[in-house]
């Protein structure tokens, strides 16, 4: 009986220790190389030192506590590792100072990476705490947030993280792919929110723009229409004077999902959404981009339209013809299309043709007014001779949610989808409103006004 009581006591001690796993570091109490922080509550995340497979360096990273395959979703010192593998770095530390500076040091106490606090922080005792969301938050005694990991994402977006700009803090939250699977240092592939015009997310590979999300239409990015079929996800897009950002949440904690940017496009596109399948014990790719030939930026040139279900995939907008028929015949569509008939805006004879199921053109230089409805948008574009197309900026249907997007000049990076997408109204000369040229996209010819 005594032995059973002793065993029960030891088990209770273990359970008590597990339920009080450490989630905080403070001055004089750093996290060492062989220790970890575990998020409170559901205990969803672990933060500690790790060495990527094939590497000879040590990093501070965040991974899932309950997913058996270690999957690192955030790295603190990605460009400033501690030399040597984690097995040799038991004396490395992650510490926070009295003035709220977070730092990583090697076994000789040499700081290899640090995160200075925001101005005004450091009022009293500072701590760094791992929240159940996975956010590592440095705060002072008054509760002022001096620094937080979610303002500095690496290659992965997890629930609650944002991509975009926080104008209040100055945080530019950009995803940057690892250089390689064994090297988390920043690679050339980045996903960044462009806040000019009607904001949208771009993927760049060095100086090359390789993918565009399209603007947010109140429900989803117009270039990611299959978002409408997702179950168990909540998507948020904030466009205000304080911030422009995209984030997502999951309906319950059993859904483990991440959005990851990689440098090679292996097993799919550069941007990939993965969901952990508990029954299979494996990650399942839920979505990826770029997905098809028409996801390439400006595949068909100015005023060209890409349709992956058409052969050839590139056609001209209604009322337009290839700038170079010879190049177009050889499937070189970079020159795009030019107007077949000049506009006559001064006499008010121009009209607009409807292009349905569109990923609307690049909105970097577009003009947006979220107070105007579609009818007012049409009138404004009609009166403005430089306006070449317009669309609704908000399709959510919520009271007070309207919006007008207007384009001037050539329409860049247009594509269509079979079922989803947005209505785009393209300005045409009167002579082209009632005809459909062989080179024009058939779906554009269905309606006009």
Fill in the keyword field for this structure.
EC 2.7.11.1, eight-stranded mixed sheet, mainly beta, elongated, 3 domains, disordered C terminus, receptor, signal, 449 residues, 4 helices, disordered N terminus, Agglutinin, subunit A, Bulb-type_lectin_dom_sf
Summarize this structure briefly:
This protein is mainly beta and 449 residues long. 8% of the residues lie in helices and 38% in strands.
| Helix content percent band | under 10%
Largest beta-sheet characterization: 8 strands, mixed
Number of domains: 3
**Helix/strand-derived class?**
mainly beta
Task: Pick out the low-confidence regions.
Answer: 1-19, 436-449
Contiguous helical run count: 4
Span between termini: 90 Å
Globular, elongated, flat, extended or rod-shaped: what is the shape? elongated
**Nearest-angstrom radius of gyration?**
26 Å
- Tell me the strand percentage band: 35-45%
What's the mean pLDDT score? Answer: 89
How do the strands of the widest beta sheet line up side by side? 27-26-34-30-35-32-33-31
Number of strands: 35
Blueprint (SSEs and pairs):
Blueprint: H1 2-19, E1 24-25, E2 31-32, E3 36-38, E4 45-50, E5 57-64, E6 72-75, E7 82-83, E8 93-96, E9 102-105, E10 111-115, E11 127-130, E12 136-139, E13 145-148, E14 156-157, E15 163-166, E16 171-173, E17 175-180, E18 183-194, E19 200-205, E20 208-212, E21 233-239, E22 243-250, E23 257-261, E24 271-277, E25 282-289, E26 304-306, E27 314-316, E28 320-322, H2 325-329, E29 337-339, E30 351-359, E31 367-369, H3 374-383, E32 387-392, E33 404-408, E34 414-416, E35 422-428, H4 430-433
Parallel strand pairs: 26-34
Antiparallel strand pairs: 1-11, 2-8, 3-4, 4-5, 5-6, 5-7, 8-9, 9-10, 11-12, 12-13, 14-23, 15-16, 15-22, 17-18, 18-19, 19-20, 21-22, 23-24, 24-25, 26-27, 28-29, 30-34, 30-35, 31-33, 32-33, 32-35
